From TrEMBL:
<keyword id="KW-0032">Aminotransferase</keyword>
<dbReference type="GO" id="GO:0009450">
    <property type="term" value="P:gamma-aminobutyric acid catabolic process"/>
</dbReference>
<dbReference type="GO" id="GO:0030170">
    <property type="term" value="F:pyridoxal phosphate binding"/>
</dbReference>
<dbReference type="InterPro" id="IPR015424">
    <property type="entry name" value="PyrdxlP-dep_Trfase"/>
</dbReference>
<dbReference type="InterPro" id="IPR005814">
    <property type="entry name" value="Aminotrans_3"/>
</dbReference>
<dbReference type="Pfam" id="PF00202">
    <property type="entry name" value="Aminotran_3"/>
</dbReference>
<keyword id="KW-0808">Transferase</keyword>
<dbReference type="InterPro" id="IPR015421">
    <property type="entry name" value="PyrdxlP-dep_Trfase_major"/>
</dbReference>
<protein>
    <recommendedName>
        <fullName>(S)-3-amino-2-methylpropionate transaminase</fullName>
    </recommendedName>
</protein>
<dbReference type="InterPro" id="IPR015422">
    <property type="entry name" value="PyrdxlP-dep_Trfase_small"/>
</dbReference>
<dbReference type="GO" id="GO:0034386">
    <property type="term" value="F:4-aminobutyrate:2-oxoglutarate transaminase activity"/>
</dbReference>
<feature type="region of interest" description="Disordered">
    <location>
        <begin position="26"/>
        <end position="50"/>
    </location>
</feature>
<comment type="similarity">
    <text>Belongs to the class-III pyridoxal-phosphate-dependent aminotransferase family.</text>
</comment>
<keyword id="KW-0663">Pyridoxal phosphate</keyword>
<dbReference type="GO" id="GO:0005739">
    <property type="term" value="C:mitochondrion"/>
</dbReference>
């Protein structure tokens, strides 16, 4: 296993060097993060009494949510979050994987304190009509500086759900433009679409995978298949979904089984696309590099390479949803960079650690009337300013090295614990610091999450039995060691 991890690190470092994410590191004194030496719990359990009081008040005024605890962000720093009861927790969940550097990072504080950031925040422009004078320069310095290979266009959006919604619209527009073959839109199409009827409102579909998650807004819910409660009571399109390969982990130890599962999945994809041609043709296929909400289902690069080839053969554009996997936590800025594709995806969506949503896309997805992919804000320039600092800091401080080192330590530690407590946990897996392990059942997983939180470690569940980890890019081997020691003690107590 050690040799496999070494090969993985070497391969990822080669990819990052080619992509320009490895540069000589500058001294870290100007942006070094001051943080506690470790977790500290003051209450009998988390959430504590003050958090519980605030939760009760909030639930009377908002939709009740699954709040873990209320945080004191003024006291939180680096990898550690402090709650309103004074508990300090090592945060390995990071606001559902949304914070690149944890809390109150000096590089981001410096940007936020600038005059330019203040002006952009209070004069928030509608980017489609009145973007700021430096908008193109900002895009070049941020999103386009880390654009996936082969995709030179980007459209900013507010969040991951609306990025996927609009990317799917682009796939539909591309399909219908090909059907028209250059003829203008007819009056019949214009009239019928106002009635939600063909031919202006065509019967098309998007192919997704079972157990996938692509957002909770109305349209994209038809692609989301991770939890029934997300979709319950909401009308949906009758779009098809196929099985993702039923992998066994570690991936390299079950290659024959995994290869068979991949073939079964690919056959389903092809059969489904061909079957749909007569009713609701498939205008695109959407896939996550890791099925995150569905249980952190990691796949082999070989599968995605075959999927890319199959999509090209079937003339079905490939949309890669990197909302959770993008931003560096997998060891490269985009997880799909590790697939070794012969041709790029047609579109890549992003959000979370990139601080705003958006779509990278190829020229063949540019609609004839570009204002058809539009909303008032189209993202937020102040977030792009922060993203510039994030990308610059990743390069200057060589944070991808830390991701690989910490991810290797965490994954190896999970492997060791799964061998020590096989009756409790299994299937350790990781790509960079995007790691997970499965429990024997849901109740045991939930119990472990709570026990870890009570000891000062904030993690999250996924799927039915998965425990997932989404630490910050400044997460180090020492943090992994702290967690693994406590996780060992939790598992030991649960095994009695």
């Amino acid at each position: 296993m050690q040799s496999s991890l070494l090969k993985y690190r070497q391969a990822v470092m080669a990819l990052r060097t080619a992509g320009g994410l490895l540069r000589p590191a500058r001294p870290m004194s100007s942006s070094a993060v001051a943080e506690p030496a470790g977790p500290s719990i003051r209450t009998d359990s988390v959430p504590g009494p003050r958090s519980k009081q605030l939760m009760e008040e909030a639930n009377k005024k908002q939709l009740p949510h699954g709040i873990y605890f209320f945080a004191d962000y003024s006291k939180s720093s680096g990898n550690y979050i402090v709650d309103v009861d004074g508990n300090t927790l090592l945060d390995m969940f990071m606001q559902i994987s949304s914070l690149p550097f944890g809390y109150n990072h000096p590089a981001l504080q410096k940007v936020a304190q600038s005059k330019e950031f203040l002006e952009m925040s209070i004069n928030r422009p509608a980017l489609g009509v009145c973007p700021p004078s430096d908008w193109v320069d900002r895009l070049n310095a941020s999103l386009l500086s880390v654009a996936p290979k082969g995709l030179s266009r980007v459209q900013t959006m507010m969040c991951g759900s609306c990025a996927n919604e609009n990317a799917i619209k682009m796939l539909f527009m591309r399909y219908m433009a090909k059907q028209r073959a250059g003829r203008p839109v007819s009056q019949q199409e214009l009239d019928s679409t106002m009635l939600n009827e063909p031919p202006g409102t065509p019967r098309l579909s998007i192919l997704s995978f079972k157990r996938s998650f692509h957002g909770r807004t109305l349209g994209v819910l038809s692609c989301t298949r991770s939890k029934a409660i997300h979709k319950l009571d909401v009308p949906a399109f009758q779009w098809p979904a196929v099985d993702f390969p039923a992998y066994k982990y570690p991936l390299e130890q079950h290659q024959e089984h995994n290869a068979k599962q991949e073939k079964l999945s690919l056959v389903q994809v092809e059969e489904t696309v061909n079957r749909q041609r007569a009713t609701e043709p498939v205008a695109g296929l959407i896939v996550e590099p890791i099925l995150a909400e569905g249980g952190d289902i990691h796949a082999r690069p070989e599968y995605f390479k075959a999927l890319r080839s199959l999509c090209s053969k079937l003339d079905v554009p490939l949309l890669v949803d990197e909302v959770q996997t993008g931003g560096g936590l997998c060891g490269t800025y985009w997880a799909h960079e590790q697939w070794g594709l012969d041709s790029p995806p047609d579109a890549v969506t992003f959000s979370k650690r990139t601080l705003l949503g958006g779509i990278y896309f190829s020229d063949n997805l540019v609609p004839d009337q570009q204002y058809r992919v539009y909303n008032t804000w189209l993202g937020e320039p102040s977030k792009v300013m922060l993203l510039e600092a994030v990308i610059r800091t990743i390069k200057e401080e060589k944070l991808m090295d830390s991701v690989l080192e910490a991810g290797t330590a965490l994954t190896k530690g999970l492997e060791g614990l799964s061998q020590r407590y096989p009756q409790l946990i299994n299937s350790p897996r990781g790509l960079g610091i995007m790691c997970a392990v499965d429990f024997a059942d849901t109740n045991s997983r939930n119990e472990a999450v709570q026990r870890l939180r009570n000891k000062g470690f904030h993690t999250g569940g996924c799927g039915e039995v998965g425990l997932r980890f989404r630490p910050a890019l400044i997460f180090k081997e020492k943090h992994a060691k702290l967690f693994l020691e406590t996780f060992d003690s939790v598992l030991k107590s649960m095994a009695k």
